[in-house]
## 1
Amino acid sequence: MPMITEIEDLRRIYKRRVPKMFFDYTESGSWTEQTFRENSSDFDKIYLRQRVAIDMDGRKTATKMIGQEVSMPVALAPVGLTGMQHFDGEIKAARAAEKFGVPYSLSTMSICSIEDVAANTSKPFWMQVYTLKDDDFMQRLFDRAKDAKCSAAIITVDLQLLGQRHKDVKNGLSAPPKLTPASVANMMTKVQWGMGMLSTKRRFFGNIVGHAKGVKDPSSLGSWTAQAFDQSLNWDRIRQFRKMWDGPLIIKGILDPRDALEALNVGADAIIVSNHGGRQLDGALSSIRALEPILDAVGDKIEVHLDSGIRSGQDVLKAMAMGAKGTYIGRAYVYGLGAKGQQGVTDALNVIHKELDASMGLCGRTDINSVDRDILMVPKGFSGDWAE
């Protein structure tokens, strides 16, 4: 097994081991993929300020996200279909996160159910929900999360309408996946992946099949997903969801300061600056560029986190120094999961932690809670100087 020293090492193994359909699902964005690319490349435009002859001993990356203790300011983002990247993928990722001391976020569109993950972990995880039309399903989803002792809910607000991801369309990647001769032939070459999938009963959308009205089996899932998402969503509707969940609430998918203020007004505890990993509106700003104007708008009235584009501990450090109070990794941990299962997720977290810890020290700081813009060199106009 190759030595793992960076996230790219895991991505290379992941690409070899997982069927193309599911690799492409992870490693793609919508339309031209401009936003998908710039989510990562825009971090490269921010430079770190190295300091020397400063005591770097006793470094600390531990902090809090929405009042919860975390070993570093990194949560595992909600990612759909994780259980198709590796058998029982959500369970394995949640276990790795628990042992590392960071939050795990379970997607509504997961393969393993809320109950599956709760039964196989000992600490609370976070539950992500979409803004669906069906009030009965939504209320029961929140109730199931409460019964599983989830310590926060994440409402994703940027998926009223699905952005076209060309690779997914061509691969037949949908809910449920539409297998093509090419995808079946490719799956047959991924022997280790296939043996794992055959060893588990968890191969369908565990939070939906048997729980949503009229969805008794995978064959009835397609028509439900086509009608479930609410294109008429507004902030009053989000207020209704807030009443369904009385615990800590995070709203994910904010890119505009006006929407950040709306999220504050509906009683959210935190917002996630995110463009869905570049998978929704192509041509939208990268999350790191969108961060500062949102922070300026909300001040310290609400906790601001960042998602989309994090591939290293240096990315985490830059986001925190720009003012975020937490970050999320999606693709980075999925690479590890597909490559090596639970151990691969742990490897991804170890890589990011080591990079964060060392880079913070070389910038002359010993506590993640003390980093600020002083450790950065940010280009003028980085967050936008746009014509009216």
Note: Residues 124 and 151 are 6 Å apart (CA to CA).
## 2
Amino acid sequence: MNIEPINIETILTAFGLTMIAGLSTGIGSIMAFATKHTNTKFLSTALGFSAGVMMYVSFMEMMPEALHALSEKFGEKTGTFYLLLAFFGGMGVITLIDFLVPEDENPHEVHVVEDMRKKSSLKRTGFMVALAIGIHNFPEGIATFTSALNSMELAIPITFAIAIHNIPEGIAVAVPLYQATGDRKKAFWYSFLSGMAEPIGALIAFAFLLPFWNPIINAFVLAAVAGIMVFISLDELLPSAEKYGEHHLSIIGVVSGMAVMAVSLFLFI
């Protein structure tokens, strides 16, 4: 994988991809209001596919690239140590975020469109649910943005995978908000705006990382983003795919995601 030159066009493209990924929560809210039944087979397969893409890219492309750069600079053993530090550091950051979000407000609990016909006894506010989504989406925005700074061949499938991941998150925001307020517009806009945490994450990465960008910073970011994406796959995508009740379809999705990435990356060799 060759790191593309970081110019204004690359930066704008990176922001654009992050925006697309983040605002896919709005698609989830539209699905919640426009359909009578949740297509669990589609979501289970799509979530598995996203997990397959993220894990394959992390272990087969991002980690080896980061290890190569770190080993060249620090030697094989020290470089590997820094790689592991960054990888598990990325996992640690998103684990901490999960601990900070109350379990009852966790947006990764599975919601379906049919739930909107049920009376909710919960008194939680829609704002807290949308805020929880925003907190979870923040590191995903950094992941999408920094992957685009590295290579479009990585950024596009990662954007696609995170966008699919955000569709059920949009449902997770819209359903309880509608239950709490009875207001479709408010539910849609909170869902839509919660996805804005991803471009905000991109802005933070732009402000704090880009001025110091070099091959070593790039390697640390690649390893940390790999950790974030593996954690998202194992903690969110695969459990959600299972909860939608289509075990075999979710596994087919995982294998298909890996196969698609394997073929596409092979073609770029």
Note: The chain has one domain: 8-267.
## 3
Amino acid sequence: MERRFSQSEIEAIAAALGDTSEGLTGSEIGHLLASLKMNDPEPGITKWKRLHNAFVERQNHSQNRRAIMEFIRQAMRPERYVKCPERFESMRANLNRALAFSGLAVSVDGRINAVDRASTISEAQRRADELRAELKTRGVHPDVLRFCKAELLADDYFHAVLESAKGIAEKLRSKSGMSDDGAKLVDLTLCGSTPLLAINDLITESQRSEQSGFANLVKGVFGMFRNPTAHEARIRWSMNKEDAEDILSIVSLIHRRLDSAR
């Protein structure tokens, strides 16, 4: 008998592909289902439920998972995301957290590869526990610890670092009222002679230099990790625990300075 996805596996895959903020749009789902000649039984319902129902119906009919696998391949073709490469990596991360329980993973070239299902789950939890313990020993900021989750470490430590970098942007927006992102957000909030957020009194040349250096530090973190698909070598870098600890400690420093910024 050919391999089939379990009910819980289909639900996890559909939830990842139909994620409200980072998943496929309704029109993209409709186009992919039509191109693969998969029935779309309830096109008006929530995206992930729509995908779930379509996947279940097709697998029950064919008694195999080939159509669902092909849907994933087509949805994750890198050329679809040329104009918004950061979206590809967010979707890949969400999908791989779901596929880890099926012993599968989507690579940076959009291919579906087999991985060790049992060790993937247990290894992710072990990594999360170890990383959280080490960072607590270092006394890192609580806003960093919340990203040390097993689902973020199903692939490697890279996604914990990526999500923690997103957390910096969230705090900048929250404290400043700005809605931008990346380097532009840093320019608007931390740069200039009268920045929206100042980490010191900006009176002396040393203080102004410190403010400028802090802005460059935040830009550096964003440049390395906020848009990973623009740096293919970085995606392919399998980050180890020591690298993650050091980088997350820098992120912790940034959070502490932002907390006290005026």
Note: The chain has two domains: 7-115, 119-259.
## 4
Amino acid sequence: MSTVTASRETQRDHLDLLEAHAIYILREVVAECERPVLLFSGGKDSAVLLHLAVKAFAPQLPPFPVMHVDTGQNFDEVIEFRDRTVARLGLRLVVASVQESIDRGRVADPGPLGSRNRLQSVTLLDAIETHQFDAAFGGARRDEDKARAKERVLSFRDSFGQWDPKAQRPELWNLYQGRVNPGEHLRAFPLSDWTELDVWRYIERENVDLPSIYFAHSRDVVERQGMLLAVTRFVEPQPHEVVRRESVRFRTVGDANLTGAVLSRAGTLQDIVHEVATATVSERGATRGDDKFSETAMEDRKREGYF
């Protein structure tokens, strides 16, 4: 067996193990909880998670709806992908709207160009209470951020929706306890042990559909706070900023006014796998403005109920 063939066999075995474990988690949570929901942002991780959920319960549809916490500041391509994917699979979509939270006075309006990222926590918790969801599947991975590295696979939230990293249940030998008390709920992270490279290799292997912005394309951008932000209705060039036309793609997808692009000509899945394999900075560390404000930004938001 050649070295290249052996390497491919090792990768396949590794991805098979990750897939099997993720499907096991999905099935365990559904078996123990009454009203689960899958958080679906339209990003690559949630697309992989949804793909796994479809596999886990085939030939039936996944026995839960998908929910998007919509800030109203998303990339148009991501919303189009979200709606197209849900329609193709025949799933029920629940949209939890930050704009509705603003209209109801639940959160303060940051203005037309202000960030709505942190407001999502209130919108999410309100939606969980309204629909009485007792479990929410998310696509977070431990390699993304130090706060997410503290998460258990099953991460419990108290009756206020808050997270205490010091009060999580032990998970020994992949044994999970999914019971929740009345008023509490859990977040389940089947992709916890995956890396960004694992995700892309799995996307390549399974040919998982994704929004077009993950692939290299020509776009007007401005450089702001060390990031290349796409010029959209959410990002207006300031007088001192120079608009440039560049070949870029997005490694992660969040709000359009907080998510930076990277210079890239990776137009195929194979190209992206190679690019990620040689990257020296994590996708969030390089391109997410919501994580740049402080070292504890993610943990602070997670304690409030963020996913």
Note: The chain has two domains: 3-198+296-304, 209-291.
